[in-house]
What does this fold into?
Amino acid sequence: MKEFFKSKKNIFNFVMLVFFGWLLFISYTSSKRKPDNVGELLKFDWLQSWPKWLDLPLMAWINDAFKKLNENYGWIFEAINNFLLAMLVALKNFLILAPWPLVILGVVVIAYFASGRKIGTTVFVGFCTFFIGFLHPIFWQKAIETTAIMLISIFLCTIVGIPIGILMARSIRIRDKLLPVLDLMQTIPAFVYLIPGIMLFGLGAVPAIIATFIYAVPPLVRLTDLGIRLVDKEVIEAADAFGASKKQKLLGVQLPLALPNIMQGINQCTMMALSMVVIASMIGTRGLGDEVLLGLQQLNVGKAAEAGIAIVLLAIVLDRITQSYGETLQERSTPQNKKSK
Amino acid sequence: MAKIEIKNIYKIFGNKPQSVLPLVKQGATKEEILEQTGHTVGLDNVSLKIEEGETFVCMGLSGSGKSTLIRHLNRLIDPTDGEVLVEGHSVMSLNPEQLIDFRRHKMSMVFQRFGLFPHKTVLENVGYGLEMQGKIEEEKNKIAMEKIEAVGLNGFEHQYPNQLSGGMQQRVGLARALATNSDIMLMDEAFSALDPLIRSDMQKQLIDLQSQLKKTIVFITHDLDESLRLGDHIGILNAGKLVQVGSPVDIVMNPADAYVEAFVKDVNRAKVIKAKIIMRPANQSEGIDKADLIRVQEDQFIEEFLPKIVCKNSNCEVIDKQGNIKGYITNKELQSSLLKS
It folds into this structure.
């Protein structure tokens, strides 16, 4: 017996077994459909079909916990809500109040510099932007609302995702712990966290921002982690050999060299955020998504298609800008491509 | 006191190196360890002394542990067991801050695949060590420019590494290592990635620089000709064990075992052996035909005076710098030294 408890793995397995037994016991005692006395269990007819009392009360637990969370810590969520909403409204109003030609011009200028002064990309992006409003006048404002939600989500993703990615690249232990969490975030259906989002933050843009964040942050974290780990080992050794501290190594060598990958992550983040827009419209978020939803509800194929195309155009604009910025960065760090041109 | 002293270094790669250490110390071979425990023996009881101002060449085939060995000197790799002393101080006892300081001021390193920062210009690359030392911008650039000139790269200081050829890139690596003005330079297969002509050029440049700077250089190579050309002393590694340490002539004339013998088999001995090594001392000169003697300096390599002997078909007298006759060389000595044993 003493031998058995010497190994950490055995102790862990034993604890898990005890935990499982405890879960069974709790489920049985808290179940309302358990047999009147324990003796009935000896008939074993419950082996035929899944017995009603063998039911983990996870639902009740989560609901209770959620209720307590809402009652006791509601002010935290309210603060987050107010903060995000204020940011969103400021950004949205700024873009909506500005004359639309100016906004298009702004997008074109950003595209021009982000793409490293490529005329082709710039003109293409300009036309795409124009066509969003051109499809339907109301789309212009809706697109701006969508963009505002996305920009805020991406901002959140960046300030949270990049540091987490850096942590993962630094420590294998943290990476092992976080990878399943990222998998969970990417696979769990969006509605599962949209609904608690509504209960905590109310209907509207803020739960959409939170949902978008949960859905879009994993690729950024992964690509930041990957980007940093892919930096040439000898370059890192060189930084070490010349006495760079951890901070100097990170800011001076690892992050700049991982930047093309990180930009790719932001690009992926943007695309995933956009796909969340339609889903988020179901919880009353205003934007291009609710036009698609409206088209569906009215069985108006043309309307849904128009709105769908507008979303694709918005995606193209955002993709071209973030993507070409990443490409520009990559060219700088590997100028061999330039030579051959 | 030796500049660098390595005492009984063991390095074992794997999950639990400490548990394998006793086995290695008992004398189990690399293959046995790998088969029994899955651990790889990198270095097996290596002890070395490197004197101030000399070029120590560490030679071995790939996988012999030479790159591992050099990384112990600035603790890019920590040994499993053993000690590294630099100027009498143990490198192993340094705490992280001291280690960074040590790397900034005591040692610099040149890498096989250059290890340059692709996102920095030549000037910034060369100045990296100085930046780490905390030098101000002007001073940093001034010193960096001096070193760029010293390796003959003026005019390229604002280029990015990838715009340069391999040879030029390694000159940048060399300049970067010289710039920190550390006493010790570690060169990890520094010229192995270069083509033969450029390699020979770089070797000459290193010899010229070394004759002025008198640094302590630890040079790693798998090329015997290179080690004979550069090294004051040569250490030969085989499967993590140090097989032989000696001067180039020692290695060529008295190989310690079959492995070293195989290594030196094809070497051009005339290039390595000096006149004073093979001469018959002046006091044993009976019976030598002293008519029409050729004069050679005692430090000349056989290669340099061999053509004369062949043309004139007569014996040599060997003199020192003052012109005193030290000994004679006849066909007999030539034969015994040049013939492959």
Notes: The interface with chain B takes residues 232, 234-235, 237-245, 248, 253, 256-257, 332-336, 339 of chain A (CB under 8 Å). The radius of gyration of chain A is 26 Å. Residues 335-341 of chain A have pLDDT under 50 and may be disordered. The first helix of chain A runs from residue 8 to 30.
